[in-house]
């Protein structure tokens, strides 16, 4: 795989070094009274650092979570970067895409791709022109010299690039409390991730409205029974801006439907609402009755049945800001539904977006680097690890038969994963004789360094390579899964244009945008097999991979020998990948059996070691459940061309 930059798109050295250097709620009728203000939050706790909380390096997008990453290279070109095209990608079962195919020519095009990806639920690894120029034309080093950048200069440029794409939020954790600092003019609401089905509950929290502008205005808002940010109840604790004028404080109440207030009512309070003073608030919803208390005293009861269920959250508008703490949502039967003291992350919430793109998950740092680039790549990875640990620094390696190349990459660059490409389906009908050797090298290094391993699979004919059948696409995927792969990427999705050379023929989508049979094949494979089985294998550790009933063995392959779980394998050639849990005390094993052949079916007979294996269950991707086999002593495996099966071996 290659994707070389064009000289005319690069910024010049001079530009690089230069670069291094109230939402209104209308007031309405009065009602009731209140209680004295509290000078500090009613409950205390040890506060954390004032620095933003970042996910650990192991919590990177695509690498963490249950979803198996299924990606593509060469998405729709700029003039086809539309919602319909990105929905087409999502429908085919892909979870992310790299933003090449000339998208890197312009930041505005990248942003459009990010917006399209966000709308359909895809993630995007950005191939940025500044990163291309930085990595290709400069060495990042402290030694100095021509065409060099210091790590500090490189860090500034990387920060500027990431700031172009990353989402920003009106929410952040500050000193162990939630700060909502502003919102849109119409108001911005952040909601709990859980709670769509919550009915009757009490939403309790502490809040300190902060001063807005020079007039001392202060207001803190909260949402409840929220369907979404535009359809919710919003209550506000404020010190001014509502009728009748002159009250020491107000409880302003609003019902929002489709983002517009249907009604707004203000309740004058007897308490004084003072900026930077903490108040304890409880709002209880029961049936159509909404009861609010401040500092332990009921100040309002409202009747409305527009919303009967929904989430909780907080709201500010314009330049308003407030602190929130000690959240607890409790069902009326006493069940605690949500607790958050904001001493950790915002993982329980969907904060309001203040710009940027939630679909942005990382940067394409380099494709197929030679070892002389490793020092510069190491600097980039180090900068991202230290300053941008929430974003993936993606690097893809050359195909290789040299274990030292992969080992040196890992030792010098210290990457987040090992990704490589090798396209095994050759034009003469044969397969690359070193495909398994390359996989064995990458698998071994991934296990040694505790890094996930990814691969690109071949989807098209090009120089010296044949057009894959559906079974050959499936075979590449299943061989890779047997070897412990944790991420599959398709090369390519859109067909590269003829001007690029290399005699590219049609991929999943033709140059002019027509689907090929390989699109339909990928859609079926991704949705019906790879996504569910990948979710099962992703958290597991590859324990062994062997080829059974194959002679001679291909380069890099290990032959089957009996072990504690499988005594014998007879029949056609198959590849057995054995997996274990990350919990070393768990004796359960998973056995992935892949057809060695991509052009014919295979049958094999696996004799279990009954001293250890008590029950065998086969994974059903349709139901996503393991179904017990009638005979756990001998497992009869029948696989179509390129196919595989996943078994769970229970030892007790």
From TrEMBL:
Pfam family, one: 3keto-disac_hyd
Record-linked SUPFAM superfamilies: (Trans)glycosidases (SSF51445)
Source superkingdom: Bacteria
Matches recorded under PROSITE patterns: TAT (PS51318)
Signal peptide: 1-39
Keyword Signal: yes
UniProt cross-references to InterPro entries, sorted A to Z: AL/BT2_dom, GH, TAT_signal
Ranges of residues in domain 3-keto-alpha-glucoside-1,2-lyase/3-keto-2-hydroxy-glucal hydratase: 169-329
Keyword Phosphoprotein included in the entry's annotation: no
Keywords recorded for this protein, A-Z: Signal
Gene Ontology MF terms in the entry: hydrolase activity
Name of the protein this chain belongs to: Uncharacterized protein DUF1080
Organism listed in the record: Thermasporomyces composti
